Amino acid sequence: MARPAASAPASGGEAFSPACAIPAHRGSDRRERRSSASGKNRRGPCNLGRGALEHLRHGRSSPGTRRGDVDGRLDPSAGSFDLIMRIPATIATDQPVLIFGGPYGNLEATRAVLDDARRLDIPPERIVCTGDVVAYCADPVATIDVIRESAIHVVMGNCEESLASGAGDCGCGFEPGSSCDRLSAAWYAFADGLVDADRRAWMANLPRRIDIVLGGIRLAVVHGGLNDINVFNFATTPAAAKLAELSAAGVDGIVGGHCGLPFTQSIEGFLWHNPGVVGLPANDGTPRVWYSILTPSASGLRIAHRALEYGHAGAAAKMRAAGLPEGYADALEQGLWPSCDVLPAAECAARGVPLEAGEILCRPQWRAVALDPARDPRVEHHWPDSHGRPGARGTAKFEDPAWTAAGEPRAEVALTALRTLWVNTGTLCNIECRNCYIESSPRNDRLAYFRLDDLRDYLDEIDRLRAPTDEIGFTGGEPFMNPDFLAMIELCLSRSFRVLVLTNAMRPMRRLEKELLSVVRRLGGILLMRVSLDHYTRERHDEERGLGAFDAAIDGLKWLARSGLTVSVAGRSIGTESDAEARLGYARLFAKHGLPIDPADPAALVIFPEMDGTRDVPEISEGCWSRLGMSPDSVMCASSRMVVKRRGSERPAVVACTLLPYDEAFEIGGTLAAASGPVRLNHPNCAQFCVLGGASCSGH
Ligand code: SF4
């Protein structure tokens, strides 16, 4: 009986569909902004409700929302106003977009970044500034004018909001009496005295959010956060707070400014990017300032964090001449901020560590299954790494999870749909094969027996998630050594899963013949028995598995076939033998023993590539997919996961695949929901077995 179809979770493709409607923007209240800096309005632990989770997964619009015009003003032609929400300006392109933040009245730096854009042939309509055109530096008026004349897009910063409304301070939300508060009072008074009504009116009309749709990936560009213009979102700001913003924004990612430090990270597969600012260095001990270029590509979004050198000495001299705070003039030259009041501990510790420009490849992709509100969101820091470097290039192969030794972005595989859940029943085996990739033996219990209750929990989770899983695969060790094994088969069949068992068909299985047949006859369903037969000759098979193993396996195969069970064989490509030669050899063997197995059917006779741990294996980079004409979706970890129970562990864990049960880098969660993120192909097996070997353990 086929398992009833479950509704599929959002696929990777859905992740890129643009959100349809955007929530209205709350006006920012001064008292509220004040409390933001003291941390009072920073978000607590993630507390996303069911609706928010749905929104995260599907990016759905609220019913009754309509499009307004690009600046968020109402469009009378769109219909009755009560149905119209403020929709952000939208830039849709598949060309590179340049983003920078905080010109801060630094005319030299502003001109330099716009010059770079011209050199790179990026027109104004593909340039976005994240706000704070005016702040610490000496040329507020000229900088506003250069920005306005350039006709680039600008998001309102808190400095624009304050100047436009005639507020008494910059609205950065610094703690009263802190160094930042005192220093900002000086430059704010300076700018406030120079900026005229026309320029303030321009500021007042700036949008608080601009959306960019880059090759189908939708990003919301804001100043501080989605709701609070002056919230500081640093790389180490709790991810739950950012996830709540992402949830509300209904986009694949947020580009924010305000905090002054560039970074890129993903949170549960959503992107958070800060291009940095051009008006002040990044507190890294160099006078360089930062901006980004975002380029859509077939494999995702390329984000280049670029350092900009400009005439910082001239800008600093003008600040001193204007009597502005020495600390900031000094910062332009030394690259160190005069105060770290607002910085979290990690950012503070990185003060003076020079950043290295770098390019990363991101694929915003929200998780295909429900998030677990009880756990912290998963964060991946893409740039800079903990040392301020984009990646440890020039290192040995398989060392850096994000980069190959050749400095290319490492390939990764997204889970498109969990079709097969593998269960490792434990590594104990009745025999010890010479080349067992998992080193099973009568003594190896590194993976303990997986228990019936453990399995029940995961099957329940599959149901809860409405995952499209239709196959449960069992591998070991030898699964029939696990005392719960028959009960686990029974559980899976009773829940209408197709069951695939990898066995050596030797004594552990034979001693349970009667019980196995009884389960199958009672429950029906699909039970596929795949028997390992390393070679079709007795000599080669026994060489791998020990004397007598071949005859025992053939006997077991014949019994399975006689009993009416569906049998298949897992062979190995040994030495220089071609696939065709191997299939011919197995064909003769099957015919000789009357085994009902089609040797030409790759699902009935699976021939796995040889795994040679001594071979120098190439790494798989993002570029390999197109070079090999291959899709990441065809790789085993795109549609399966394996659950294991480590010796001494109380709880099972989910690993990426059957091939890597021990490597902790491939242990990707405790629940299926937590393990639904992409897998980086940072292991020789990924190349040898899956990508170049083209193999998969699954029965699909
Ligand atoms: S070895 Fe595992 S993680 Fe690596 S590509 Fe294959 S299935 Fe994915």
Could you name the key traits of this structure?
binds iron/sulfur cluster; disordered N terminus; alpha/beta; Purple Acid Phosphatase, chain A, domain 2; 28% helix; 700 residues; 2 domains; TIM Barrel; nine-stranded mixed β-sheet; single chain; seven-stranded mixed β-sheet
What share of residues is helical?
Answer: 25-40%
Largest pleated sheet: 9 strands, mixed
CATH hierarchy class name of the largest domain? Alpha Beta
Overall SS class: alpha/beta
Question: What is the CATH homologous superfamily assignment of the largest domain?
Answer: Metallo-dependent phosphatases
CATH architectural label of the largest domain? 4-Layer Sandwich
- Biggest β-sheet: strands ordered side by side in the sheet: 20-19-18-17-16-15-21-22-23
Report how far apart the termini are.
16 Å
Tell me how many strands there are: 24
Structure description:
With 700 residues, the chain is of the alpha/beta class. It folds into two domains: 88-388, Metallo-dependent phosphatases (Purple Acid Phosphatase, chain A, domain 2), CATH 3.60.21.10; 416-616 and 638-678, Aldolase class I (TIM Barrel, Alpha-Beta Barrel). The protein is 28% helix and 16% strand. The chain is built from 20 helices and 24 strands. The strands form four sheets. The protein has a nine-stranded mixed β-sheet with strand order 20-19-18-17-16-15-21-22-23, with helices on one face. The chain has a seven-stranded mixed β-sheet with strand order 1-5-6-7-9-8-13, covered by helices on one side. It has a six-stranded mixed β-sheet with strand order 4-3-2-10-11-12. Helix 3 (107-119) runs parallel beside helix 4, helix 9 packs antiparallel against helix 10 and helix 12 (452-465) runs parallel beside helix 13. The radius of gyration is 30 Å and the shape is elongated. The structure holds iron/sulfur cluster. The site of iron/sulfur cluster has 16 residues, from helix 20. Iron/sulfur cluster binds at residues 413, 635-637, 656-657, 659-660, 666, 679, 681, 683, 685-686, 689-690.
